Amino acid sequence: MVTRVLIIPGAVVRSYVQPAADALCDRGVEARLLAAPGEPGAQPDLRSYGKELARQISRTDPLELLIGLSVGAQAAAVAATTAPSMVRHLMLISPTVDPQVRTVPRLLGRWLAGGRLEQPGLFLEQSPEWRRAGPQRLSQVVRSALRVRIEDILGTLRARLTVVHAEHDVITSHCYAAELAADHGGELIIVPDATHSWPYADADRFADTVQNLLA
Question: What is the CATH number of the domain that holds 132?
């Protein structure tokens, strides 16, 4: 059985998620990795990105699962609530932005701290994408991320909700992820030994997690 799954990656980078999307496709799941918010040609404003995605999916059959990673989770939440009958299940992985860090200095501080926990290969892989996007587009994504509050958006969510928190994620706190799930009737999944960039370099575990939810 073919299942339609869309994945929104984090800010301006998406190559790090491609192996995870490919792992789903290899298992017979119709999964597509979308453009990263803020990458050249894609909306840097997360609310606009989500609303445009809602218009696109409203012209097709309902999605079985919409997945958002990091700031992509904010865009995914906007899309799922803008087209509520078109998304059956919303999965937020490492959702941002934690209310404790909703200023530019605090958020950048968390990102720097989180970067020290990531695998060295991640920075090397993402560097060309950061350069192509440029500082202006990245700044636009950051400012948008500080404005779009998932906890407010989810009040009108009709889809099933799953929130995923990586054990070693210091950008999004466990408390925030847990509250998002608990306050909106969702399920919280903790991924042991993972960081904010999950599912980077962990495609099989990601595919297992998604398949279990779809089942």
Answer: 3.40.50.1820
CB-neighbour burial class of residue 28 (10 A; exposed 0-12, middle 13-18, buried 19+): exposed
By residue count, the chain amounts to: 215
Q: Is residue 173 part of a domain?
A: yes
Domain residues for the domain of 94 are 4-210
pLDDT tens digits for 134-178? 999 999 999 999 999 999 999 999 999 999 999 999 999 999 999
pTM of the model: 0.95
Q: Using alpha carbons only, what angle is made at residue 119 by residues 209 and 73, rounded to the nearest 5 degrees?
A: 45
170: in domain: yes
Q: Residues near 212 by Cβ (< 8 Å), separated by ≥ 6?
A: none
Torsion angle of alpha carbons 89, 94, 95, 97, nearest 10°? Answer: 180
